[in-house]
Amino acid sequence: MLFNSLDFIFFFPVVTLIYFLLPHRFRWLHLLVASCVFYMYFVPVYILILFLTIGIDYAAGILIESATDPARRKRWLILSIVANVGVLCVFKYYNFFIGNVDAMFAAAGMKSYIPLLNIILPIGLSFHTFQAMSYTIEVYRGNQPAERHLGIYALYVMFYPQLVAGPIERPQNLLHQFREVHNPEYERIVAGLRLMLWGLIKKVVIADRIGTVTDPIFNHPHAYSALGLYMGVALFHVQVFCDFSAYSDIAIGSARVMGFKLMTNFNMPFHARTVSEFWRRWHISLSSWFRDYVYLPLGGNKEGNFKTYRNLFFVCLLSGLWHGAGWLFIIWGLLQGAYMIVGHMTKKLRKRINDTVGISSVKWLDHGLDIVITFSLTAFARIFFRGKNMDDAWYFIKKLKDLPREIGLFLSTGKLGFTHLPQFRSVLLPVFALIVLMEMAHLLKIKYDLQNTFSQRPAAIRWTLYFTGLILLTFFGVYDNKQFIYFQF
Predict the structure, then answer these.
(1) How many distinct structural domains can be found in the chain?
(2) Is there a single domain that holds both residue 172 and residue 240?
(3) Residues 455, 444, 435, 377: what is their CA dihedral angle, to the nearest 10 degrees?
């Protein structure tokens, strides 16, 4: 079920109302059934895969906790991880692997007879797989007692607000909340609904409207000049943020209405001054997952620069594969690793240059330049994230050399390089206006606690802003049942 669908408009209030009306002892069951219904809106039969991995991890958690022999505890953990990763590999990576094997055989003049699987990737598989793995790892580490209530554990994996696209929760944060009594509280409910409204505006008013520009550019890149292409790249970077953070806002807001606290998943990533900081602010639940369960166990940054760079590169490779089974995603992930490694290696040199030319002494220029460079680097990498194939990605890169000349042409003539698509002109101005308004809200967030500040405003001001948001949704939203970008992962 899509958050931006008519079905969800009826689903959410009905589920929430019943949740508060039910006695506490039945609420877990109600949420579990509702979560099953929510997930089965996509491909119903795939819920059986969830049930299979839930059963394995539930049993593994108990067996890990009960085992006194460290070797036996590790074996049960490995079994759980292999089961989860195995399911992920079959559905997400099998055809990619076999396709590359076929290509190698063909290059050698041979034929491979390994069949491809005619299957659809279960929606949100990577998200709930990583959440389930968090549970068994934390039980193994002794940070979380094994959950003995099968229904509560199943709800931990399937909790509908964050089931499909996160945040990827840890058991320490979420499991205990299903046993707590949550009574309806006006301020909390209003805060949750306000966050959901903001998320919907980011999705259907900003992200999906940007998509009307970026989709044609990435679908037919050869029809555009360099300036049109790279404007599309920058806009897509913003689109992904608006789309994915919108899902997180709606997930966190809908959970908050019922009394649950989910972790923050975004923290103004476009204000980051380095690529490393960008990833500490972007998809925080995934970045912290890789940090805690891959990067730090490999040694983190405690064993010298070479091993630090190796660990970073490996984590970024895994992150690329997590996002998609394809060489473009692998390149995208490795490019992030290269950015961070080069950034670390040149940190002192860059500071020396900035000090020499006087940039460091002008704080707003120093910070602003770093932010622009970080945005440009991470946006450039979106070529591989969004590109349809390697040929299209290479075309983007080749056109980079034409960009300075076309920028000069634009400044002198005002031509954007896609005048054959005049409908863009009517879309771009409101898109840029909405992006500016969003960033103004982010700047205010740095200085003020917007939640408390907003709740203290007079009712007339608050309701005026609520109605303004509803008017934006009604008259400026793009309603074509467009799913969230991260659903494909």
Answers:
(1) 2
(2) no
(3) -130
